[in-house]
Specification:
The chain is built from 5 helices and 10 strands, in the order H-E-E-E-E-H-E-H-E-H-E-E-E-E-H. The protein is α+β, with helices and mostly antiparallel strands. Helix 3 links the parallel strand 5 and strand 6 (142-145).
């Protein structure tokens, strides 16, 4: 009788061990699958989501090759639009360098992105000046300009602030201006406002989510 109980107890222990082993194997298998899954880009946007905004619908300006451009020309690509000027001492070159680095981080997908630089200083930023300045960051970047009136009208459409400030030196003035940039999706719809100083990695991840 005792031997029978011992036998049943051992059988029960073996059964429990088998079930425990199966559970451990299942957990390890699921952990393996989780580890093998590609890491998704951050689900949170760092930039401000302005999807549905009713401003910044389009523009008509001339690029640094002399070609007339509108926002519709870039449908099929995510567009990053930044307003600045080539004599800018800090904000503009820093932003352009950040965009250059963001494009590198995007890898092959950078070809699905178009960076546009709109000058707020057409008096000094001629087509020739833009043709030297803009491609020096990335040959795919495009510089845009208009007349003084076209520039002012475009800045108003995109709610961009710009004001001349007298300064000593060769240029005679600097510009106080909005330092952020806009991101449009492949359909040409405005989606994001990116604050000045956003890190290239965050810019790249935000753009990937729009892509």
């Amino acid at each position: 009788m005792l031997k029978s109980k011992v036998y049943k107890f051992k059988a029960y222990l073996e059964f429990l061990m088998q079930q425990l082993l199966k559970a451990i194997c299942l957990v390890l298998f699921l952990s393996f699958l989780s580890a093998c899954k590609p890491v998704e880009e951050g689900s949170k946007l760092v930039a401000t989501d302005i999807t549905g905004a009713d401003f910044g619908q389009s523009f008509t300006l001339t690029d640094h090759t002399g070609k007339t451009r509108t926002l519709a020309d870039f449908k099929g690509k995510v567009v990053t639009l930044f307003f600045g000027y080539t004599h800018c001492p800090d904000v503009c070159p820093t932003t352009m360098l950040d965009l250059k680095q963001a494009m590198k981080l995007l890898g092959p997908r950078a070809d699905e992105v178009q960076v546009l630089f709109v000058t707020l200083d057409p008096a000094r930023d001629s087509q020739e000046v833009l043709a030297q300045f803009i491609p020096s960051f990335d040959k795919r970047f495009i510089g845009l300009r208009g007349t003084e009136q076209e520039t002012a009208a475009t800045a108003e459409v995109f709610k961009v602030y710009a004001k001349k400030v007298e300064a000593q030196g060769k240029g005679g003035y600097t510009l106080d201006h909005s330092a952020g940039m806009y991101v449009f999706d492949k359909l040409g719809k405005i989606r994001l406002y990116v604050d000045y100083g956003e890190k290239p990695a965050d810019i790249a991840n935000d753009i990937k989510q729009i892509l």
